Amino acid sequence: MRLIRAKDYNDVSRKAANIIAAQIYLKPDCVLGLATGSSPVGTYKELIAKYEAGDLDFSKVRTVNLDEYVGINHKNPLSYHAFMQEHLFSKVNLRPENVHLPSGNGAADAEAYDKAIHDAGGIDIQLLGIGRNGHIGFNEPADDFTYGTHVVTLTADTIEANARFFKSADEVPRQAVSMGIGNIMAAKCVVLVATGENKAKAVRDTIRGPITPRVPASVLQLHPCCVILTDREAGKLMLEE
Ligand code: F6R
Questions:
Q1: Whether the predicted pLDDT of 241 surpasses 80
Q2: Ligand 1 binding pocket mutation candidate from 70, 83, 138, 149 (most atoms within 8 A of CB)
């Protein structure tokens, strides 16, 4: 596990985009694992800028997203399908048939999603954000690590954190479909981006804490190719030790 403390959100985004761009140069038909939320938006902006400058070609790239809410229409602007269209897919030359997200239909499609990842040859590089409680994807703190794609009941902390995108916390879906920890650990490389003071404890627990499903990201200590990119605030507790 490698920690890179960048200056700020823009610096984190530029560095994450550089790593992903290098992956696309090395393997034009690579499989990118993608995330939603505030953390990766800057990374997507940087990738779009590289595409617009003629430096990146997504025509052969395949993508698989981490998660989707259950029971939300894909056209709903708050769905992760719509998020990805807005922040990346509609702005680069990714082919629609090459992008994959969990359907959000619940358990029925989870196995099919695992098969789609497997059939694509596995994930070459997985981009992650991290929850304040150490979740990755929607793998919430639990008694056990999950393996494959599964339905998750969101914790009160995650509902509160995601309420900022909805009119109120009441409107946040209570369930999501998420890749499991096994899917994430099977990615050849992982890049986790974390910014802001409210992520500092989760970052420290991930890197320095015991490996436990109570802090799902802590399992990344066992990943052979994992980069954690933080700004000064999210990395600040790593300076004290
Ligand atoms: C999103 C996802 C989540 C987020 C995490 C951080 O696809 O899987 O794990 O990465 O909740 O969210 P932000 O970046 O909004 O702080």
A1: no
A2: 138
